[in-house]
Amino acid sequence: MYQFDYHRPASLKEASELLKNCDEAKILAGGQTLIPTLKQRLAMPSDLVDLGALKELSFIKAEGDAIMIGAATPHADVAVNADVRKHLPSLAKLAEGIGDPAVRHKGTIGGSLANNDPSADYPAAVLALDAKIHTTKRLIEADEFFKGMFETALGDDEIITEITFPHPKRAAYVKFPNPASRYAMVGVFVAETPMGIRVAVTGAGQEGVFRVKEMEEALAKNWSADAISGIKVPVENMLSDLHGDAEYRAHLVTVIAKRAVAAAI
Amino acid sequence: MKSELDIMLTVDGAEERTTVEPRMLLIQALREKLGVKGPHIGCESGRCGACTVLVNGEAVKSCMMLAAQADGAKITTAAGLAAEDGTLHPLQQAFHEHHALQCGYCTPGMLCAAMDLLKTNPKPNENDVRQALRGNLCRCTGYQHIVDAVLSAAGTLGSGASAVKGAAE
């Protein structure tokens, strides 16, 4: 690791000011991606702003037809929360499938979204459920948030505070995990919400998480695995690496999407 | 030179104060600054779990956390599971009885990951145990004896009551 200064602000305001005033500050939201990145010297922040002391960012609330999750809520909390399990079991299952127990104790939903790893699980849920991302400055729609691999709409001194999920009529997340890392080789989140049907794919796209509108339209007419079995995403947009080439991933998208539709509750 | 930080950790019941660089990992602070050599450094990249400790009761890989983040925290290592007079914790005893280790390198992490499981799920089945130990690698045992030991400690291997005192605390 390169050297950096460490801050543990006691308020969001203090955190925002640190981000604004430091040279090249980065937020430490749980560290399960950032710390390995720092170890490999793939990042060289001047300062780390640890959100670990901001307990007001770690909460899960159920109000009306929505579930609100604080940005610093660890995956382990989402996985076992009674309200999430009741109204959004697909999200609880997603959280339960991230990494391993130790990672889930430290990793946070806000950290995962802000990092926007092309193989991360949460971006698929946020995009498919049409969740709202609240920050220290504004509210960002899911469709406007993800801007490509490791890129988001967040400004340098902007901090995610909360994510609001609607209760879907039915939804499911199915992932084909890399057997070693548990990252998604392909993960598909399908959801029918009051706003419509959405299909979001993670792990496969060169530009990170993406929607498959053709599948959404087919499912709107006929919610069944058969309805999408003939729909294939373009191979040229897929990731290709030693774990699976582009053609394989494109094939998996259809297979996993069908499984997700069949599993949706 | 970046500023150093004064931190305080409670390690296996003992209050410890030390000074760390912001970039120092918790595992480095434990081993190099405080001489706590129970948790091992295996891969140092979050994969192997040999460095797993309990931070405020939750299993965490101490190579995936900065020492500064742990300031004020209560750390329990595998050594801290035993009673003060050295009597093994029932989980440790079960590892011994079931031959759940060969070289022993992964054992401190395995014990902490298993404790974390039994705290939230005192009566796990075999799949629960395997899922809970997913982030801890063992290259000797093939896992079967480790899984047996955890089930035995929980009293869910065959029949019998839980032998793990305090597991539900």
UniProtKB/TrEMBL annotation, chain A:
Coiled-coil annotated spans: none
The keyword Ligase is assigned to this record: no
InterPro entries: CO_DH_flav_C, CO_DH_flav_C_dom_sf, Diverse_Substr_Oxidored, FAD-bd_PCMH, FAD-bd_PCMH-like_sf, FAD-bd_PCMH_sub1, FAD-bd_PCMH_sub2, Mopterin_DH_FAD-bd
Molecular functions (GO terms): FAD binding; oxidoreductase activity
Keyword terms: FAD, Flavoprotein, Oxidoreductase
Xref: SMART domains: CO_deh_flav_C
Source superkingdom: Bacteria
Domain FAD-binding PCMH-type: 1-170
UniProt xrefs under PANTHER family: XANTHINE DEHYDROGENASE SUBUNIT C-RELATED (PTHR42659:SF2)
Protein name: Molybdopterin dehydrogenase FAD-binding
TrEMBL record, chain B:
Keywords: 2Fe-2S, Iron, Iron-sulfur, Metal-binding, Oxidoreductase
Keyword Iron annotated: yes
Residue stretches making up the 2Fe-2S ferredoxin-type domain: 5-81
One term of GO molecular function: metal ion binding
UniProt keyword Ribosomal protein present: no
Domain of life: Bacteria
SUPFAM superfamilies cross-referenced by the UniProt entry: 2Fe-2S ferredoxin-like, CO dehydrogenase ISP C-domain like
UniProt-recorded name of the protein: (2Fe-2S)-binding protein
Species whose genome carries this gene: Tepidicaulis marinus
